[in-house]
Amino acid sequence: MIESAKRHLKSAGTLGETDPELAYAAIHDAVRKSLTALLQAQGLRPTTSGGHLAVQHAVRAQFGASMGALLRPIDRIRATRHAVEYLDE
User: Where are the domains positioned within the chain?
Assistant: First the structure.
C-alpha cells in the first residue's frame, strides 16, 4: 500500500504542470492509501460502506490525538479533489 502511495506522489509531481487535476487526484489517492496503511499496521481495515471518507474517520478515531496537525490538511485535500472530480454536482 505504501509503495503504491509513493508511486502516486511521484506521478503527481510529473503531472503537476500538464494535468493538475489528475495530479491532485493522485495526491488524494496517495494520502488515502497511506492512511489505509496506518490502519492496516494496527490490524484494522476501514469499512467500504463509508467510501474514502471512512478511512479518514477511522484514522482520526485511532490516531487523532497524536497526529492532529498532520491530519488537518486531509479534509481540504479530499474536498478539493471532490470538487474537481464532480464539477456537475
Answer: 2-85
CB atoms within 10 A of CB 40: 13
> Whole-model pTM above 0.85?
no
Backbone angles phi, psi at 45, to 5 degrees: -140, 125
Rg (CA), the chain: 13
- The DSSP element (H or E) to which 11 belongs, if any, is helix 2-15
Cα separation values, 77 from 26, 27, 42, 56, 84, Å: 11, 8, 24, 11, 11
CA 71 to mean position of chain CA atoms:
10
The model's pLDDT over 37-61, given as tens digits with 9 standing for 90+, comes to: 999 999 988 777 777 788 888 888 8
Residues 6+ apart with CB under 8 A from 85: 25
The identity of residue 4, as a single letter, is S
